[in-house]
Amino acid sequence: MSLKIRKRLNNFRYLFTGGSNSGKMADGHPVLEALLKRRSCRRFTDEPISDEALSAILEAGRFAPSSVNLQTWAFITFTHEEWQETFGTKIPFNANRAIVVCSDVHRIGRILTEFVTDTLLSHTMAVFNAGLAAMAMTMAAEGLGLSSVMLSDTGKSGLLDIPFLKEKMHLLEGVIPIATIALGYRKTASTGIPPRFQKRDVVFRQKYGPLYREDLDDWYQQMKMGYKLTNLTSTFENKLRYYLSRFNDAEAALQKAVFKKTDHSEINNRGENGNRKK
Ligand SMILES: Cc1cc2nc3c(=O)[nH]c(=O)nc-3n(C[C@H](O)[C@H](O)[C@H](O)COP(=O)(O)O)c2cc1C
Q1: Which residue has the least CA distance to atom 27 on ligand 1?
Q2: Ligand 1 center from residue 179 Cα (angstroms)
Q3: Of 45, 109, 201, 236, which is least packed with CB atoms within 10 Å of its CB?
Q4: CATH number of 39-188
């Protein structure tokens, strides 16, 4: 068999296994197993989620870790009727409930007056924390036998549609919708694993690199093959082109939402502890 064909077959195999080599380690370890087996779900049944289950999921978010315990997040929940009423559409993929996860520096800006909220640093911190809460909620859902998909594009659900979401949900300054977690009971078993970079491309010891060109090429091939398997009429390149076409507007809207009023030269004049220089 030629090297080229062997490579193609290998790439194909990877789509179904993810090339995971921690499978044995996960056996009998429910948390690790859940983390490795979680897959985004894009087909849900009509079965409703109980209020108790949703409430438990939200608690997992509320108890997530955050820098200086600032809890820079807000979670806005929707039943499918509420989503329809607010946005005029269905929750994508027939999901039963949705949680819009926002980064939120508004709250701490009100309490901690020395905290400058419209900086890249505070925004990045808030988004990182909100992401941790989102993952905690996603895994809580898995633990309760539910499935989910995080969305920041499909169905005007996050970062790419900030002005729309801010208006519809009456978001205050400093509250930025990052992604929606669509939740429900899975209709069909997930097939395959969206390709992951090889461990040696993302895990390093002591210092960054090296990167292997052939691993990067393999990953891109797998992305293209994987996309084709589930979207016979389109290509990964087309999808990427569409996504990128939305970037400029989304970037402008995000910049406007993050950097609004502070005279940043004033922040630059702050002393070592963040206090205004006398
Ligand atoms: C922040 C974020 C935004 C995402 N946005 C979308 C989206 O708009 N539409 C979609 O179908 N999937 C979306 N996804 C799901 C990713 O495509 C998915 O996580 C990735 O392909 C890996 O697959 P897996 O979750 O099944 O492991 C998003 C995931 C994250 C974390």
Answers
A1: 39
A2: 10
A3: 45
A4: 3.40.109.10
